[in-house]
Each structure stands twice: as C-alpha cells, then as structure tokens.
Design goal:
The chain has helices at about 1-10, 15-35, 40-45, 70-85, 90-125, 130-140, 140-175, 180-185, 195-235, 240-260, 260-285, 285-290, 295-350, 355, 360-410; strands at about 55-60, 415-420, 425-430, 440-444. By secondary structure, it is mainly α. Strands 1-2-3-4 form a four-stranded antiparallel beta sheet.
C-alpha cells in the first residue's frame, strides 16, 4: 500500500484524471455487461402471449449465437459468394470504385493538411504572395475534392442496392421453388415471419455490409498513410506504433463489451417480425374477425406483441446509452489524449538536437503539420474502434439471413422441423421425405 500511495503521489493531476477515467470506464463496462443478461423466462412467456388461438402455441427455436467468431466468418463467406458471384460483376466494379475513391479521398486529406498549414504559415509570416498562392490552389481543387466525396457516397449507395437486389432475387428464387413457400408456414415453424426476413432484414443486412466496408477500409487506409507520414515527420516508428498499440487494446476491450449487441439485434428483428405478422393477420382475416366480433381479442394480441417489442427496444436503448458513453471516451477522447502526448514528446524534449536550433516559426509549422496528421490518425483509430459496433450489429443480421437460407435449402430436400406445445406437454415432430412416404417421429 505504501508503494502504491507513493506511486500515486508521484503522478501529476492530469495523469491522475486520466487514470481515474480509465478505471471508471472499466467499472462502467463491467456494470453494463452484468446488466445485459438473456431474457428471463417471464419475458419469453410475455412474448408468446400474442400467439394464435386454439390452445396450440409455437415454441421458438433456440437462438443461435450472433457474435464475432468463426461461425460469423463462415456465414459471411457463404453469403459473399451470393453477393459477389464473380470478379467481373457489377458488385465487383462498385467495390473497386469505392476503394479507389477512398484512396483518392485520403490523399486529398493529406494535401489539404499540408496546404492548410502553408496558408496559416503565410498568414502568421504576413506573406501576401504565399497566402494568395496556397489559397488559389485550394480554390482550384474545391470542385474535384467535392466530386470525390460524393462519388464515394454514390458508390456506397449503389453497392448496398446491388447487394440487396442480388440477395433478394436469390432468396425469392429459393422461396418460390416448388412448394417451399407452403412448407415454410405449414410444415415447418423455424421461420415464423418470412416476410420480415425477405424484406426488412435483407435490406438492413445489405446496408450494414456496405457501410461496414467503408467504415473498416477507410480508417485502415488512413492509419497506414498517416503512420508513414508521421514516421517521416516525427522521426521513427514509435509514434504510429503507440497509436496502433492503443488501437489494439481499446479494440479488444470494446469488442468484449459490445458482445450482447448481436443477440439483441437478432431478438429485436424477431419481435419486429412477430408484430408485423399480427398486424398482417388482422388485415387478412378482417372478415372473420368482424363476424365473430373478435376485435377486442385482436387488440389484446396486438398489445401483447407490441409490448414485448417496446420492452426489448427500451432495454437495448439503455444498454447502448452506457456503451455509447464508453465508446466516446475510449475511441474519441482517450485517442486524442494519446495523440497529443505522442506529438508533444519530440517538441517538449529540450535535448533533442533536431529542434534545438529551430526557430519559433519552424516549430509552429512542424507542430501544425504533425499535430493535424496525428489528429486525423487518432480519428481514424476511433472510427475503426467504433466500427466494431456496426460489425456486431451486422453479425445479428447475418445470422438471421443465413438461418433463412439454411431452412429454405432443407425444405427443398423435404426436411422440416416443427415444435408444438399443447397445454403442458411438448410435442416435437421431425419430418423427412415428401408426402406419405416420409418418416415421422413424434415424442410427447
């Protein structure tokens, strides 16, 4: 204890504040992880309260793990073969186009940093000729830079649309092959809401995948380019190595903290689909409901279905609130602190021979150039760390779409599964083969 107290007394006020912030972030992360537990049995009963009448309720299948692991990579590899069937398809063209635009945009950012530093130096030095020269260059390149930025956005939107179109056509082809569409809802209950999966989930999966391609590739490209520039300006690889070490540590910490988001995404989409199914059933069976005066009972089912969805969304919002605070501190503010510390080391080292004879103007120009590059690199590190949040969410959509495709493939081979509950006994039926020639095994 004495050595620890002595070590704490040796720290400055700023270092103590940073240490306290790190400890608070770890404590908050642990608290959020403890609160993000699976739904209780009572929650599952509430979610089944809106089941169709007749004493026969559907038992939901066990949710597959939706996390960043080898299973996620296997699912993604399988789906990418559908989304990008070959090197000469239009999806490949847009992938290359987005990559080229990202490289061009990063080079434009580097040029803007250098040109902006030259403009500020000319202003401080009262150099009118230099000021007009560098400002004129910036005016000439405004339109090309704006075109690069918007071409990047256009490429990402086209890529997301191509992914959605390719996957939608593939899944509908499987869905409408033979009597698969009939088997999904009548012989198998693993997919309770195919309309939700075929429309909204596919759209969100395609958009999330295209955004993730940009959110991962652009920061990695920025880090590699700025690391090389900083190594030349600051002198040595220790500056980019320090930022990359912080990236690795913060990435592992935040990935561990965000793991429940994948399961939350899967459950949210299932509840959205169940609520959509209840609403669609009222429209489909409106005549029967009116004849039997079942409007009050339907209102109870709608309230039960939406109540479960509302409760889950509110729990996810509270979890994301805590995670978002920690994300902001770790990926933005702490990364900026690390960046400032790395940039200041050579300039604050009074025994550094490189800066001993430098003038105030030279030191200021080097600080602006290196500081802006380090700030851009710190922001890229923060974006890369925060991309893990989108990656975890994508894992949930990937699990949903892959489950749908797997069920459709099995139904085309006349393999189906159906789990039913009648009063207190559970009956599971596994069917294989078509018509009456198949095998049926019933366990009560």
């Amino acid at each position: 204890m004495g050595a620890a107290d002595h070590g704490l007394r040796g720290l400055s006020r700023t270092q103590k504040l940073v240490l306290a912030t790190a400890v608070a972030a770890v404590a908050a992360a642990w608290t959020q992880r403890k609160r993000s537990r699976p739904s209780s049995p009572s929650d599952k009963k509430d979610s089944q309260r809106g089941s169709p009448p007749g004493g026969l309720a559907v038992v939901p299948s066990k949710e597959k793990c939706a996390a960043i692991n080898l299973e996620f990579l296997r699912r993604m590899y399988k789906l990418l073969h559908i989304l990008v069937p070959g090197p000469f398809c239009k999806e490949s063209f847009y992938l290359v186009m987005v990559a080229v635009m990202m490289v061009t945009r990063t080079l434009c950012d580097v040029w803007q940093i250098r040109n902006g530093t030259s403009i500020e130096t000319a202003i401080i030095s009262r150099d009118t000729r230099g000021f007009n020269k560098y400002l004129g260059r910036f005016a000439l390149l405004m339109v090309p830079i704006a075109m690069v930025n918007n071409l990047l956005k256009l490429g990402l939107n086209e890529l997301a649309l191509c992914f959605r179109a390719r996957l939608t056509r593939h899944l509908y082809k499987e869905y409408l092959t033979g009597f698969t569409f009939y088997k999904v809802t009548n012989l198998d209950n693993r997919i309770s809401n195919p309309d939700q999966l075929l429309t909204q989930d596919v759209d969100k999966f395609a958009t999330s995948l295209a955004d993730l391609y940009s959110n991962l590739s652009k920061p990695i490209l920025d880090i590699s380019i700025y690391a090389r520039k900083l190594a030349d300006n600051v002198g040595g690889l220790w500056a980019p190595a320090g930022m990359l070490a912080y990236l690795a540590a913060s990435g592992v910490f935040l990935t561990w903290m965000r793991r429940p988001l994948g399961k939350f995404t899967v459950r949210e989409q299932k509840l959205e689909g169940a609520f959509r199914h209840v609403a669609a059933r009222i429209i489909t069976n409106s005549e029967e409901i009116a004849f039997y005066r079942g409007n009050e009972r339907e209102a109870d089912w709608v309230e039960a279905s939406f109540g479960g969805l509302e409760k889950h969304i509110r729990a996810v919002m509270h979890f994301r609130f805590g995670v978002g605070m920690i994300d902001t501190v770790v990926a933005k503010y702490m990364a900026t602190i690390v960046g400032y510390y790395i940039v200041s080391r050579p300039l604050l080292n009074l025994s550094d021979a490189k800066h001993m004879a430098a003038s105030h103007k030279d030191l200021q120009e080097e600080y602006y150039r290196s500081g802006r590059m380090m700030l851009q690199m710190a922001q890229a590190v923060g974006r890369l760390v925060l991309a893990g949040r989108e990656l975890t969410r994508l894992a949930g959509f990937t699990a949903r779409v892959d489950d749908l495709q797997g069920v459709l493939e099995e139904l085309q081979r006349d393999k189906y599964k159906r789990s039913l509950v009648r009063s207190s006994s559970r009956m599971k039926v596994d069917g294989e083969g078509g018509g009456g020639g198949g095998r049926r095994r019933t366990r009560c």
